[in-house]
Design brief:
By secondary structure, this protein is α+β, with helices and mostly antiparallel strands. The protein is built from 17 helices and 26 strands. The protein folds into four domains: about 70 residues, Phenylalanyl-tRNA Synthetase, Chain B, domain 1; about 210 residues, 3-Layer(bba) Sandwich (Phenylalanyl-tRNA Synthetase, Chain B, domain 3); about 70 residues, Phenylalanyl-tRNA Synthetase, Chain B, domain 1, CATH 3.30.56.10; about 210 residues, BirA Bifunctional Protein, domain 2. Strands 4, 5, 6, 7, 8, 9, 10, 11, 12 and 13 form a ten-stranded mixed sheet that branches. α9 packs across α10. The radius of gyration is 27 Å and the shape is globular.
Length: about 600
C-alpha cells in the first residue's frame, strides 16, 4: 500500500486548518482510508499509509487536505479546468512511431503559482508514488514536469532509434554524481554530465536509465518529447533533460505531461496532478494532443479531461437503508454527506445521481456511493446491534480440502507461492500461446472468455485469472537467479467461465505446480502428481487416467488431460518452448493444474 510523508504545515495550509493536530489527522485520515503511522510522525511531519488502491487521488498531501477541506465545507471544491471548454495553451503532436512503443501522452500548463519548496517536494512525492504504484514502476504511467516559459510549441512526441545522435540530450544529473558508475561498473567522469547522451547511452550507463530501463520492456526505439525548437524535454518514462526538464523553486509556468500505455489511465493521472496544482493556486490551462492513429477517445484529446462517461451511478436511498441497516435514513441526509465527500449529487425524490470529480473514476456500483456516505458520516454513527442468533464459525469444507492438498504439496518438497487474482490478458492468454477464447479439449480448465474488470484502472490488472500456471511462470521469471531445481506450487482461486452462473463465471479452487531445471521432464512431475492423487485415494489406472490431448501451452504429444471417474480434473504437460521464450525463461519446465473442487467431488463421491 502507498505510504506518503509530508510536512504538517503544508497539510494545514492546504486544508485551511491552521490548528490541525496529529490527533485530528489520525481521526480524519479515515476519509481517505488512511492510517496515521504514529511511530514515524510528529507535529512537524506525518506519515500516512493509504489503504485504497482505487483512489490514486488520495496518495498525496493534496488529496488528504482536499478530503478534510471538503468535509469541513460540506460541499465539493470547484475545478473549472475539468469543464473541457477552454482554449488549449499548446499542442502535443504525436508521431506514428510511438504507437508500438508507448502510444499515449497527455499534458497541461499550470500558471500563476510560484513554485515553492514544499509544493515542489509534494509534486515529486506524488510523481514517485503514482509512477511506482499506479504506473507499475513507470511501465504503464510516467510523469514529467518542465519549465513551460522556455518551451516552443508545438511539442512533438516521437520514437527515435536508441543510438540516434540527432536526438542526444543532456540528462538530469543524479543526486550523487561522484558516486555514479556506468553499466560496466566504471566511475562516470564529472565532465560527462555536461555532455549529450543518446537514449541508448542513458539506458546502458546513466544510473536512472539502468534503474528504469525495464519500463520500456526491451523496446528498440526511445520515446522522446521534443519542442518546436528541437530541444529535448525528456526521454519518457526514463529521465528529463537537464535543460527544459529541470524545475526549481521560483518558477511560475509549468508544463506537466503523462505518458503511458492506457489512455484513460494517462488522463486520470493528469487530472489528479491538475487538481493538486489547482489546490496550490495554479491556473490550469489545457493542452491538446493530436494523434495520427485511432485512440479510444478519438484523434484529438484534451487534458485535463472530464472523463464524463466513467463517473456517475444511480442510487436509491432505500438501498442505502437496506445495506447499512438504517431504516430511518433519509435521502437528503445521504445527499448531504456525499456532497461533503466531494461528490456532485442530483436528487429526485428517493433517487440520487452521484457523480465523482474528474480526478477519480472508481465508481462501478451504487454500493461504492453507499460506502462513501458511510465514510463521510463516520462509522461511529451506525447504530450497534446485538447478534440475534448464536453461531460458531468454522472453515468451509472446500477450504479444509485445499489446506490438505497444500500440506501434501509441501510434504512433497514444493514451495508455496501466492499470486494475484487480477492479471493481464497478455499473461493468461498471449504469453501462454492461447487465443481470447481457447477452443480446445480443456473446456473445463479455461474454455470460455475471461472475466474482465469493467472500470479498469490498469491494464495489468484488467482480468481475473482463469488458471494458475501463468502465475507460477511469473514467479519463475522473477526467480531465475535462484539455485535450480525450482519446485513451486499454488493452491488458489480462479474465475472459471460458466454460462449458467451469475455474470457467467464461478469461483473455483485450483492447485498448480511447476518444476524447472535443465533436465525437467514429464515423468518427474507425473510422479509428484501421482503421489498427490494417491494420497486422496486415487491410484493410476482405476482411480485416474492421463489422456493425451493437445494444448497450445504445452509441447505437442507431451500434454495430457487428468481424468478421474469421468470428471476432468486438469492438465499435465511440458511447457512449450515458445511459451518459455515469451516469459523470458531458458530452462525446461513442466507443470500441472488440478481443479480441487472437481477432485473433492470425486473423492467424496458427490
Amino acid at each position: 500500500m502507498p505510504h506518503i510523508t509530508f510536512p504538517m504545515a503544508d497539510l494545514r495550509a492546504l486544508a485551511g486548518e491552521p490548528a490541525l493536530s496529529l490527533d485530528d489527522l489520525d481521526r480524519l485520515s479515515t476519509l481517505v482510508k488512511g492510517e496515521l503511522k504514529r511511530r514515524h510522525s510528529s507535529e512537524a511531519e506525518a506519515k500516512v499509509e493509504l489503504q485504497d488502491t482505487n483512489r490514486p487521488d488520495t496518495w498525496c498531501v493534496e488529496g488528504i487536505a482536499r478530503a478534510i477541506r471538503q468535509r469541513r465545507r460540506g460541499q465539493p471544491d470547484a475545478y473549472p479546468c475539468f469543464q473541457g471548454d477552454a482554449a488549449p495553451a499548446g499542442t502535443i503532436e504525436v508521431d506514428a512511431s510511438v504507437e508500438r512503443v508507448r502510444p499515449f501522452v497527455a499534458g497541461f500548463v499550470a500558471r500563476g503559482w510560484t513554485v515553492d519548496e514544499a509544493g515542489l517536494l509534494a509534486f515529486i512525492s506524488a510523481q514517485e508514488v503514482l509512477s511506482r504504484n499506479f504506473g507499475r514502476q513507470r511501465k504503464s504511467v510516467a510523469i514529467g514536469i518542465y519549465d513551460a516559459a522556455r518551451i516552443a510549441w508545438p511539442v512533438r512526441y516521437l520514437a527515435a532509434p536508441l543510438e540516434a545522435r540527432e536526438h542526444a540530450f543532456v540528462p538530469l544529473t543524479p543526486p550523487n554524481p561522484g558516486d555514479a558508475r556506468d553499466g560496466a561498473g566504471r566511475p562516470i567522469p564529472a565532465a560527462r554530465w555536461a555532455e549529450r547522451w543518446t537514449p541508448g547511452e542513458v539506458l546502458r550507463d546513466h544510473p536512472t536509465g539502468r534503474e528504469f530501463a525495464a519500463a520500456l520492456q526491451g523496446a528498440d526505439r526511445a520515446p522522446l518529447l521534443v519542442d518546436a525548437a528541437g530541444e529535448v524535454l525528456s526521454f519518457p518514462p526514463i529521465i528529463n533533460s537537464q535543460g527544459l526538464g529541470r524545475v526549481v523553486a521560483g518558477m511560475t509556468e509549468l508544463f506537466v505531461e503523462v505518458t503511458g500505455t492506457t489512455l484513460d489511465q494517462v488522463l486520470l493521472t493528469a487530472n489528479v496532478l491538475a487538481a493538486n496544482l489547482a489546490d496550490r493556486g495554479a491556473r490550469i490551462e489545457p493542452v491538446r494532443t493530436v494523434y495520427p492513429f485511432d485512440t479510444p477517445r478519438g484523434p484529438e484529446v484534451q487534458a485535463p479531461h472530464p472523463l464524463e462517461d466513467r463517473r456517475s451511478i444511480e442510487l436509491e436511498a432505500a438501498e442505502a437503508r437496506r445495506l447499512l441497516g438504517e431504516p430511518d435514513l433519509a435521502a437528503d441526509e445521504v445527499a448531504r454527506w456525499l456532497a461533503a465527500f466531494g461528490l456532485d449529487v442530483a436528487r429526485q425524490g428517493e433517487r440520487l445521481r452521484v457523480t465523482t470529480p474528474a480526478y477519480r473514476v472508481d465508481y462501478l456500483h451504487a454500493v461504492d456511493a453507499i460506502e462513501d456516505f458511510a465514510i463521510a458520516r463516520g462509522y461511529e454513527a451506525l447504530s450497534p446491534l446485538m447478534p440475534e442468533e448464536f453461531t460458531v464459525g468454522a472453515l468451509a469444507p472446500m477450504t479444509l480440502f485445499a489446506d490438505l492438498a497444500r500440506e501434501r504439496m509441501l510434504g512433497l518438497g514444493y514451495e508455496e507461492a501466492i499470486g494475484n487474482l487480477l492479471t493481464s490478458v497478455d499473461e493468461v492468454r498471449q504469453k501462454m500461446n492461447l487465443g481470447e477464447r481457447p477452443e480446445d479439449a480443456f473446456g473445463a480448465l479455461h474454455g470460455g472468455p475471461l472475466v474482465r474488470i469493467q472500470n479498469v484502472m490498469n491494464r495489468n490488472y484488467a482480468v481475473v485469472r482463469d488458471w494458475v500456471v501463468p502465475t507460477l511462470l511469473e514467479v519463475e521469471r522473477r526467480s531465475t537467479g535462484a539455485v535450480y531445481p525450482h519446485r513451486v506450487f499454488e493452491a488458489g482461486e480462479v474465475a472459471a467461465w460458466d454460462a449458467s452462473q451469475n455474470l457467467a463465471s464461478r469461483t473455483e479452487q485450483r492447485l498448480a505446480a511447476l518444476l524447472v531445471h535443465d533436465k525437467a521432464g514429464f515423468s518427474e512431475l507425473q510422479g509428484v502428481l501421482d503421489q498427490l492423487l494417491r494420497s486422496f485415494g486415487l491410484a493410476f489406472g482405476d482411480g485416474y487416467q492421463l489422456l493425451v490431448r493437445a494444448h497450445p501451452s504445452f509441447i505437442p504429444g507431451r500434454a495430457t488431460a487428468i481424468v478421474a471417474r469421468g470428471a476432468e480434473l486438469g492438465v499435465l504437460g511440458e511447457v512449450h518452448p515458445e511459451v518459455l521464450t515469451r516469459w523470458g525463461l531458458y530452462s525446461p519446465a513442466v507443470a500441472f493444474e488440478v481443479r480441487l473442487d472437481a477432485l473433492r467431488g470425486v473423492v467424496s463421491g458427490q
